[in-house]
Amino acid sequence: MSESVRLDKWLWAARFYKTRPLAQKAIEGGKVKVDSARGKAGKQLQIGQKLEVRVGLELYHITVMGLSEKRGPATVARKLYEESEESKLARERASEERKAAAAAEPRFDKGKPDKQQRRLIQKLKQKNR
After folding, report:
1. Residue 122 covered by a domain
2. Which of 47, 80, 91, 119 is the most exposed place for a label (fewest CB within 10 A)?
3. DSSP string computed for 95-113
4. For residue 103, is it within any domain?
5. 117 φ/ψ sector (left φ>0, alpha ψ -120 to 50, else beta)
6. Residue 1 pLDDT greater than 60, yes or no
7. CATH, residue 27
8. pTM for the structure as a whole
9. Cα distance between residue 34 and residue 60, in whole Å
10. Number of domains making up the chain
């Protein structure tokens, strides 16, 4: 194993992104920080460096524990990094908040809207005119 790996290859091997081009786009889009600085796809990553990775709505604060240029099983990929406890708790809290917000919103995807839902739709349409 080498002493350093390209950031985009490592993110792909650690299974944060499904493909290297997706990892590169995320890095270019500023969704990955290395030691609190914006990362670059060609940056050589080393063991012990701290990463901040945003995947969708999830934000991971991780420490690099291993290096790999090859994508392996998820169990092996999980050993390449260690997530901080604060990060895990923050992600769980955010997930619960999103679930609570989704449960509080009226749902219109269960077939034909009832009378109350139709009135809400009419109000929205009139408001947007």
Report:
1. no
2. 119
3. HHHHHHHHHHSPP--SSS-
4. no
5. alpha
6. no
7. 3.10.290.10
8. 0.76
9. 12
10. 1
